[in-house]
Amino acid sequence: MSRLSLGKWLLPLYTALALIFLMVPIVYTFIFSFNDSLKSNITWRGFTLDKWLNVCAVQNGAVCQAFGNSLIIGLAATLIATTLGTMIAIALVRYRFRFRSSTSLLLFLPMATPEVVLGAGLAAQFLSLGVPKDMLTIILAHTMFCISFVVVTVKARVAGLDPALEEAGRDLYGSPGQVFARITFPLLLPGILAAALLSFALSFDDFIITNFNSGAVTTFPKYIYISASRGIPAEANVIASAVFILALVIVVTAQVSAAARAKRQARLG
Amino acid sequence: MPSGAFADRGADLELVGIQKRFPGFTAIEHLDLVIPAGSFFALLGPSGCGKTTTLRLVAGLEDPTGGRILIGGTDVTAQKAYQRPVNTVFQSYALFPHMTVLENVAFGLRRRQITDALGKAHEALRLVELDHLAARKPVQLSGGQQQRVALARAIVNRPALLLLDEPLGALDLKLRRQMQLELKTIQEEVGLTFLHVTHDQEEAMTMADTIAVMNKGRIEQLGAPEQLYELPRTAFVANFLGQSNLFTGPVVGETSTSIAVDIAGRSIVVPKTRSHRHAGDVTIGVRPEKLTLHRDKPVHDSGHNVMGPGRVTDVSFTGVSTQYLVSVPGVGVLIVFEQNRSFGPVEGEGDEVWVTWNVEHGFGLDDDPVAPDPRFVADTSTKSIAAQRRAALVTELEEA
């Protein structure tokens, strides 16, 4: 046995083990979304499609309600954070102003601060200001930490943008608005989209900060956390699996279309 | 002009007392310049001489610290870049990567709401022989093709003034020659005023009707290429535009038509009409290809200047000609170009030679005799400014 042949099977084995380790919880969740469960969803009681077909039936639609809340919060926070974050990123790269570096530093803080501290601190602020905790406070909280990620993502894209392109736009009779709409924005778009996806994923996922600032409103992660103590209904597995599959489909579609585009360009060039 | 019709012809460009200061340095001290309509004008100078800044001021991409810019008699100093009847071919081409070649070319026309923008864009692409690539993205083109797209994108707007910012710098020699010819042809065809910024003296001489040699934010000399070459006014021009043998010494004799300058004990004659100074210490010069080498001491002749004897210290064969370095005691090293009329070099290293030239070929400079300028100073071309800015931003980004 030479070392070479050892490497031949060791690496694939290691890779397979790592993948299995990562996939087990997901596969488990997916399989148990078909469990004909009663109150708890821990033991396998037989296959059924009921939970997939009647997702919202359980507990007067609490699962779907929570899912809907998470969607609304995610979309709102993403929209606000992406818009503001993009503007901040452009300003930080393009302009020199007072407190520029302190602004940069401040934007990094939410990423570096432990979520518990951030969530508790925000909750205290809302309390002392007398703001009632509801959807709005969650959206505000999510926007706050999403902005940091948007700024970091878009900033790199802005810094990589050749200033000569915008100058060429101005030189070719483009007013500042036209130059932004037709040159700057389209060229930043991949970065902005990446930032938006990241924001949505972070917001949709968030539990700790949400838990501090949500009051009576239940988001999807919060619902799962609460129900974990008395048994998560299979409907939660259904939604989680559906989200996972949707994400997978999006990623695969993007990859395939990118490959097709590269192929087409290669043929042209 | 921005919205509405094309400029029907090129326009005069006039710079009046232009000054430009950046934080930390002055790019242009005081610049007065008139470029007549329809001419091909080259601003020639080393990196950091202010030529690119001048171009950016005319384009409206920078604001002057002082002075006025007039195009076709209209003061455009206060106008924004997109309001000026000027287009630029950028050094980096700056083609929009997310648009096709056709969309790139039609961009300016569409912004000005000119009818049949796509038709006119196709026409411009045909002019640069790239219409068959109209549907491609810029990244799918070669450097030379990108350069031609950039040119088409600018001239399709029929600007009163076309600015060229070293657009041929990135091309290889053969392609550059070809593009030079094409540019010149297009300029004659469309009759635009071209302002071409370059550090390539050969390119400037081949293409331009008039050259302004810039150095340290000032114009050293302005004139037709032959005039600048044959009769440089300063040591900078004499050395930047081709090579020169320069000698400095006091004027020791004078006739009604010429002066005699003492160079290490030899009397060198220069016609008065070809010398800017006629008394005191003067710097005189002669181009290397005007010199002739002799193996025997030449017979004295009032029509020629003689220097020597000297020793050949280096011989380099360059194909068309051979370059000799001749060390003459007390004078220094002379550069001599000899045409290879027969085969190869005729002198060898270490040979004792005399150098002569026709009195009519010498020239006298206007400079105060000083040490030659350092050729390489701070680099401030557009590209390097952009690169510096970007580098600064990157470091900031990393620090943040």
Structural account:
The complex is a heterodimer of chains A (269) and B (400). Chain A has 269 residues and is mostly helical. Chain A is built from eleven helices and no strands. The longest helix of chain A has 35 residues. Chain A is globular and about 70 Å long. The model of chain A has no long low-confidence stretch (mean pLDDT 89). Chain B is an alpha+beta fold. In chain B, the strands form four sheets. A six-stranded mixed sheet of chain B has the order 6-7-8-3-9-10, with helices on both faces. In chain B, helix 2 crosses helix 3, helix 2 packs parallel to helix 4 and helix 3 packs across helix 4. The longest helix of chain B has 18 residues. Chain B is elongated. The two termini of chain B are 44 Å apart. The N terminus of chain B is likely disordered. At the A-B interface, helix 4, helix 6, helix 7 and helix 8 of A face strand 6, helix 2 and helix 9 of B. Chain B: It is an enzyme of class 7 (translocase).
Quick tags:
heterodimer; A: 269 residues; MetI-like fold; 11 helices; B: 400 residues; alpha+beta; Rossmann fold; OB fold (Dihydrolipoamide Acetyltransferase, E2P); 2 domains; 5-stranded antiparallel β-sheet; 20 strands; ATP binding (chain B); Mo/tungstate-bd_C_term_dom (chain B); Transp-assoc_OB_typ2 (chain B); ATP hydrolysis activity (chain B)
